[in-house]
Specification:
By secondary structure, this protein is an alpha/beta fold. It folds into two domains: 62 residues; 120 residues, no CATH class. Helices cover 31% and strands 27% of the residues. It contains three helices and eight strands. The chain has a five-stranded mixed barrel. Strand 3 and strand 4 form a beta hairpin. The protein is elongated, with a radius of gyration of 26 Å. It starts with 9 loop residues before the first helix and ends with a helix. The model has no long low-confidence stretch (mean pLDDT 87).
Length: 233
């Protein structure tokens, strides 16, 4: 009884081990990312239905909170390149000095259209008055940026990112580590945009995982086929 010997060769074996390991690990990474996104979305969906609690040091990302304070309309930020219903515009961030503290929190008051020209910024005036703001805390990531010049010099400043670590460099005042996305019921709110807790869904990550595992299986089958085929030759 003849049995075909398996002998793919050293070079092909090294190639297989490297890429098979890479594909398999990438698949596992995407599975982990999928579970992570599932937890984020579940936490977010649970929090948005809760009654807002007073903002405190214990508050964390996606918590629904209420903050009392006074607006500072002199130092507002326009977050650039925000598309709403196909129209280019800005997210408007307004500092709110939290009552009985020296800490400010940037409040996302909503979206405003860019207008006819980028050379003229939209009017975002607001009275420096006492208010109570309900909303969701977020901590936006820096994301992909094309330039180191992320924020303009003059107020109101135009920023290419909503990342708090970048924005706090523009303020002399102490800023909270979170941005408060105000509810649309806020008196001075602009056009409300629904919060998206993640740019990529868990399903997409699981889909990518399937692709990496499929490539891993295909590579294994090719390695086995080449090993026996090469021996025949």
């Amino acid at each position: 009884m003849n049995f075909k010997k398996f002998n793919p060769g050293k070079k092909i074996t090294v190639f297989f081990i490297f890429f098979a390991t890479t594909f398999f690990l990438l698949g596992l990474w995407q599975v982990d990312r999928g579970h992570e996104k599932s937890n984020i979305i579940e936490q977010f969906n649970n929090n948005i239905t809760k009654t807002p609690k007073s903002f405190s040091e214990e508050s964390s990302k996606w918590d629904r909170v209420t903050v009392n304070g006074i607006w500072d309309g002199s130092k507002q930020v326009l977050v650039d390149n925000v598309i709403n219903s196909g129209i280019a515009g800005y997210k408007v961030l307004t500092p709110l000095q939290i009552s009985e503290t020296e800490i400010f929190i940037l409040v996302d008051r909503g979206w405003i259209s860019q207008g006819k020209s980028r050379d003229t910024l939209p009017r975002i005036d607001i009275k420096d008055e006492y208010v109570e703001v309900d909303g969701i805390l977020e901590d936006p990531e820096l994301g992909f940026v094309l330039s180191e010049d992320l924020v303009t010099d003059n107020w109101p400043k135009v920023s290419q990112t909503k990342n708090i670590d970048v924005l706090r460099k523009e303020f002399d005042e102490q800023l909270s580590s979170y941005i408060l996305v105000a509810d649309p019921t806020l008196k001075s709110s602009l056009a409300y945009m629904k919060i998206v807790p993640s740019n990529m869904t868990a399903e997409k990550h699981f889909g990518y995982a399937v692709q990496w595992f499929t490539m891993f299986v295909a590579l294994c089958l090719m390695y086995i086929w080449i090993g026996f085929k090469k021996n025949e030759e």
